[in-house]
Amino acid sequence: MTMPEEGPVEPGPDRLADAVTQLTAELGALRRDVARRHLLDLACGVLVAQQSLTPGEAADHLAQLAETMDVGPEDLAADIVNGATGPSGAVGGPAPEGDSGPRAADETARDRADEDRTAGRKTRLVEAGAEAAAQTGGTVDEIAATLLNGGMRPLGARGLWLFRRTETDCLQLAGRAGVNPLEAAHWRWVPPATGSALHRVLSEGTPLWLPDGTSAAEALPGPAPGSARAVLPLRQRGVVTGLALVDWPGPAALDEPVRRALAGLAVPAARILDAGAPGTPEPGVLAPLLDLLTHPAMALRADPESGTLHIEHLNRSALDSARHVHGAAGRPLAQVFPAMHADLVRLARTARESAAPQRAARVPVEHRSGDPDPLHDVRVLPVGPDRTVVLWHGATDPGLSLSRVLGRLENLAAFEDDLITGKSRWSEQAYRIFGLEPGTSPVPLRRLAPHLHREDTGRLNELLMELTQRREGSHTVVRAVREDGGLRHLRIAAEPLLTGGVLTGITGVYQDVSAQHHTEIALSATFDRLTAAQTQAALRHQLVLQLQQAIVPEVPELQRLPGLQVAARYRPAAEEYRVGGDWYDVLPLPDGRVLVVTGDIAGHGIDSVTGMVALRNALRGLAFTGHTPGRLMAWLNEVTLQTHGHPTATAVCGLYDPSDRSLCWASAGHLPPVLLRKGAADLLEPPRNILLGAVPSAAYEEAVTRLEPGDTLMLYTDGLVESRHAGIDEGLDRLRLAVERLDPAGLDEQADALLAAVTGDTDDDTSLVVVRVS
Q1: Residue 539 has pLDDT above 70, yes or no
Q2: What CA–CA distance (Å, rounded) separates 471 from 367?
């Protein structure tokens, strides 16, 4: 194979790192300058409005005031903006206990005012920084980091989670700061579970303060169950659009100043989520959906300034209710439904603010003589921050209900043949089924053959034989050929009419089942295709599984290596995700060193296995170049970037030298190895390197660990320690304790005991390599 070349063609990692550092610093300075200018412009705008100054005069006046008062221009600008709009999140609280005399009260009021002013400045500056990050193309994660570092870390907070509310009431993790990627992966989506703390805040719209953490039965994002948390609803235009969760390293006193500060920082967080939120459906999307409904339905939209409700669309049934108003769509609701206006406005406002459907048995509640018919079983559904859909039933008169039921039976027609007079009678629907003009002479059942497909006349004869000879009711399905050339599938169900034991007539129904027939054919074809696809997928799955077992056997046979004893185990994932991307490798090299590797490709399935095979084989070949683990990982990163499907992977790669018992190793975002020495287990701190396949031309730092005779080293993948209900740190601590509790035994016994003692609950596959120095 052709080896990668060394020399001048290799990119200069130091210069690249310097350039990235310089650009990052420049971007930070730019954002700080934008935040400063944004705040000063707001303050100048307030001065222009309040004192009738020109923008230039307002800027000069602001500079002179700052110099006279001996405060920074940004602090003064924050005071001016807060004085005009009120401090973000300012919440009044009780005065501190102590001397209650007039002088003490004055001092307390001044101290409280100073505290509020300082807190208001800080909140406004942080808010301006977040706005600047958003204006300069910052991601939600970067803006969340601005809020965390500028306003929440001084309060002792560790991390910030920003969840966006979806149309189905799921919570989607839109941004986070101070949280590692593995934690974030566990909380990417939060389904609308009944009674969960997050969804209680979402529905009630009130903050949740947990200074002592949560119970073990209720999991929330954060480092540990006992860590303090604050969950705040994020509102835009009066609607809860998401949540902000702030966590602390441990228990914390969430007193009134902390709560006021967090409430203020929730304001820019809500704007961040709202700016990146998907748009609500437009009337062009809602209208066809409403038109499919048989019950009345209309779409309402609230004017963003006045709040007045306007009708955007009415379906056919709703138009019948508003037939007294010409051109109802586009008019204010009060003009079209004046008697119901107040109740519908109240229901729509509640639905938008709570983001939950509202229901009323009857609107208006009190129906007076002369008013239009009330709306029954009214349901108001929120569709975004300013739009609602109203569904209802009309009058409950049984005659109207019966008309609607009969109208739906247009595919069902009655017939009756009088065998004594030779005359027949059809219901009106029969003419439409056969494509005949009303008034045309009905065709008796015994003379229906010319109107049927010639291959179906035998079925008609069998039906007539059942009715006339056996005198029993029966049914069949035939194809009716209409005069216009159309073909309809027709079910005929009939009964003989007997008078004194004599057959005097035939009665029955024709049912047009064309739609059902076509659906059955489509379902049958779909089932055949699905069966074929399932069979093909099962064969591919089996082949890939055999390939995976051949490359990564569950219990491999490893030969004795120079200076080492090695045992390896592979535990497949749960049955439905059986094919995974974990791998390990132990390979003696020509120079006497031993390559030891574990890795994990993101995801499951065939793509993961093929990617795993490509990386494992590539690393095997690269190892024979004799280069260090850091260089091998840099090459493997380039291989990953060129692999089909563009996978990402974590891995730890080590080269053991038996001559001095040293292990030189590098990690690409992988979990730390565990070293067991004289009964004590420690997690080796890995070099901080990026995972494979993330960015091109990445450099990987190395670490050297000196091993002693009897040392045992364990390399593994995340399936061993990950949990849906606990942080990764808890899983690693549980693994370390389990290693210390292992009985002194053979290496194979220890590997089996460790797999049995430590088990993650994410149904992920697991690789484990146990190495003991001879």
Answers
A1: no
A2: 57
